[in-house]
Amino acid sequence: MAILLDKDTKVLSQGMTGWAGTHHTAAMMEYGSTVVGGVRPGKGGRSHLNLPIFDGVAAAMSETGANASIVFVPPATAAAAMIEAIEAEMPLVVAVTERVPVLDMVRVKDALKGSRTRLVGANSQGVLAPGVCKLGVMATGSERPGHVGIVSRSASLTSEVVAQVSAAGLGQSTTVGVGGDAIHGFSMRDCVELFLGDDDTHGLVLIGEIGGYEEQEVADYLAETKAQKPVVALVVGAHAPRERRMGHAGALTFGAAGDAAAKVAALERAGVRIAPSAHLVGRTIAEALGRTH
């Protein structure tokens, strides 16, 4: 059992006919994900990767039964693609597009209010349920089915941690990249809440970094709910300079509350185990679960 994805997930690829859409949609299909069609305005009625292309999301959902979409649309029009999916009541939307303008994402967040859509991203590597469904652009090969849920703000660190968790013999229930931008949809707290309610997830790994307050929100939630599942966190950026963007739009510290030390302190107060280094995350979650390797 995974969160967000299952064997019945039917994927629509928005922007599938472009280079990125073609490449990554083909990779998802090769992995075993059920991709049922693509969306590209003006190209409806054609086919690509032996799948039908539609002019709009609503028509594609009606024809294919799609219940998830992934957005490969360029930054200037990515928000419009997300909003179209939200208005069509697509249950799950993953937006991998980077550098979506901040004001555009404000409009997307407004469209999400009261909607039936869960939006992961923008600037997300996606969601992966090993052996079940890949909805994203992440590398695969080291993932294994298992019982550790991973929620992350960093794509590269996610790959490292997945490999460590697999090497520890634990595997993953689901891996979720919430998105590296300052404004995005599905939050770390939202993800942690789903993992805590998932019987197949026995422990969680949280990969945080400087900027924003999402890690503190998770800490507050864990302290409030007194979660019984072990949670391990890695927070990077301890030596990052202030007021300088580090890697992507969300990794930017202005005040003390957004730095690594404040995040670590908040998580520790909530009972979260802090991995002392990036290369020790797998060992730390194994110890938390009473497993050794």
Automatic annotation (TrEMBL):
Residues 4-100 form the CoA-binding domain. Belongs to the succinate/malate CoA ligase alpha subunit family. The lineage of its organism: Bacteria, Pseudomonadati, Pseudomonadota, Alphaproteobacteria, Hyphomicrobiales. It comes from Hansschlegelia zhihuaiae. Its EC number is 6.2.1.5. GO terms for molecular function: nucleotide binding; succinate-CoA ligase (ADP-forming) activity; succinate-CoA ligase (GDP-forming) activity. It comes from the Bacteria. The keyword Nucleotide-binding applies. It is an enzyme of class 6 (ligase). The keyword Ligase applies. Keywords: Ligase, Nucleotide-binding, Tricarboxylic acid cycle. The active site is at H248 (tele-phosphohistidine intermediate). GO terms for cellular component: succinate-CoA ligase complex (ADP-forming). InterPro entries: Cit_synth/succinyl-CoA_lig_AS, CoA-bd, CoA_lig_alpha, NAD(P)-bd_dom_sf, SUCC_ACL_C, Succinyl-CoA_synth-like. NCBIfam families: PRK05678.1. GO terms for biological process: tricarboxylic acid cycle. Pfam families: CoA_binding, Ligase_CoA. This is Succinate--CoA ligase subunit alpha. Signal peptide: none annotated.
